[in-house]
Amino acid sequence: MLKLPENFESYEEARREGFLKVKALKERGTPVVGIFCTYTPIELIHVAGAVAVSLCGTSDVPIPHAEKHLPKNLCPLIKSSYGFAVSETCPYFYFSDLIVGETTCDGKKKMYELLGELRPTHVMHLPQGQDKDHAFRYWREELVRLKEVLEEKFNIEITEEILREEIKERNHERKVLLDFYELGKLNPSPISGREVNETMEALGFQFDRRSQCNFIEERTRELKDKYENELKGTKTNRPRILITGCPVGGVREKVLKTIEDSGADIVAFENCSGVREKMVLVNETIDPIDALTEKYLNVSCSVMTPNPRRFQALDEMIDEYEIDGVIEVVLQACHTFSVESYNVKRFVTEKKNKPYLYIETDYSKLDMGQINTRINAFLEIL
Questions:
Q1: CA-based angle 54:156:24, to the nearest 5?
Q2: How much helix, strand and coil, in percent to the nearest 5, is found in the chain?
Q3: CA atoms of 345 and 152, how far apart (whole Å)
Q4: Alpha-carbon gap, residue 79 to 89, rounded angstroms
Q5: DSSP one-letter code for 8
Q6: Domain containing 316: what range?
Q7: Which pLDDT belongs to residue 1?
Q8: pLDDT at 269
Q9: How many helical (H) and strand (E) elements, i.e. helices and strands, does the chain have?
Q10: Contact (CB, 8 A) for 201 and 58
């Protein structure tokens, strides 16, 4: 009989519900694989008979545990993730049979060395240069190696047939989620950006994929009906904001809430928790390993250099979502997004002729007043 952590009752409702579900999965013999990043090919995890769970990293509560081993001036997402793991307060890490990491940023890849002392950990080595032949070959080898690790770990054979079926299923899920995100294209939007972000985070605590899709499809229908019956043709003076940069789950209250409480609508997210991974489907007509290699090599994250696809996505989204202003949120010590923000600012202000605001922050509440002042000043010019 698997035990729950001693502080289980202190978790918020969504986390408790998810914890009980993953515990039930484990007790039925279903393996759990913890993941951190959209570069992880979760199709391979699913066809190995396991569930892929996104591990915790959006709270400052466990950071003091992490800072016993990690430098204080490190990215808060990394410290939070490691703090949850080392303090055994993340239920999903707690029950993981395997951790799959990737060499995206320097901080994470060194964190994986420490996580490897706590749970079995496999790290995929991400090449640079998305359009180079050698990068494709290298990344393909990494996917094959992950497939072999999963087969050995869970005593299962991953066949081409079942992988093709999983790719189709996962593509359907992407379409459903993208349809939900694209509610932001409606003007005025029938859903707040904060609710979009909260909804997607809550899905990370749900492991019945069919139920996930059904819930999102129903919610999307409800909101489209709301737009048609209540909002269509109405006028609003609220500026339409696109959020880009780092994941924002850990700064939702002090950034997203502040933006919307100050009179703007967040209608689009160009980041890990937004449409970035959903915009391109996996090719269903070619060799499945080749198709997954192509898909996951071309994620438009700042850890990749060069990174033209991010600017292509921004170009399309600013137009399609009728964006009035762009706010880039960068977590402290995230060097790739911090450096790339220079080119993002130039692109947004010079090519797209839109106002741009850069916010660098962490998970603490110390800068809430300053952020509030800067956001309100930015919105006044829109």
A1: 45
A2: 55, 10, 35
A3: 46
A4: 13
A5: G
A6: 162-380
A7: 66
A8: 98
A9: 15, 8
A10: yes
State pLDDT tens for residues 288-303. Answer: 999 999 999 999 999 9
The predicted pLDDT at position 311 comes to: 98
User: How far apart, in Å, are the Cα atoms of 203 and each of 22, 199, 257?
Assistant: 13, 6, 20
Structure tokens at 246: 């780092």
Partners of 100 in beta bridges:
35, 122
CA distance 49 to 29: 10
CA torsion through residues 337, 339, 343, 349, sign:
positive
Spans in the chain with pLDDT lower than 70:
1, 14-15, 204-205
Q: Which residues pair with 331 in a beta bridge?
A: 361
**CB of 286 closer than 8 Å to CB of 296:** no
Q: Is residue 2 part of a domain?
A: no
- Exposed (0-12), middle (13-18) or buried (19+): which is 54, by Cβ within 10 Å? buried
- Residues 175, 181, 186, 191, Cα dihedral to 10°: 140
User: End of a domain among 141, 158, 175?
Assistant: 158
Q: Which tokens is 157 given?
A: 């054979």
CB 314 within 8 A of CB 244: yes
Which of the listed residues 133, 158, 183 is the one where a domain comes to its end? Answer: 158
Rounded Cα–Cα distance for residues 345 and 7 (Å):
44
Here the tokens at position 185 are 């294209």
- Judge contact between 329 and 255, C-beta under 8 A: yes
CA atoms within 13 A on the CB side of 69: 22
How confident is the model over 199-227, as pLDDT tens digits?
988 786 677 888 889 999 999 999 999 99
Both 209 and 297 in a single domain?
yes
The domain that holds 84 is classified in CATH as: 3.40.50.11890
Per the listing, tokens 């600017």 go with 311
User: How many angstroms separate the CA atoms of 208 and 286, rounded?
Assistant: 28
Q: Which stretches within the chain are classed as H helix?
A: 13-27, 42-47, 63-66, 76-86, 91-94, 106-115, 133-154, 160-181, 193-203, 209-226, 258-261, 288-297, 308-320, 335-346, 368-380
Instruction: Report the alpha-carbon distance of residue 61 to residue 31 in Å, rounded.
Output: 28
pLDDT of residue 205: 65
Q: Which two tokens stand for residue 326?
A: 């762009």
CA end-to-end span of the chain: 57
Whole-model pTM above 0.90?
Answer: yes
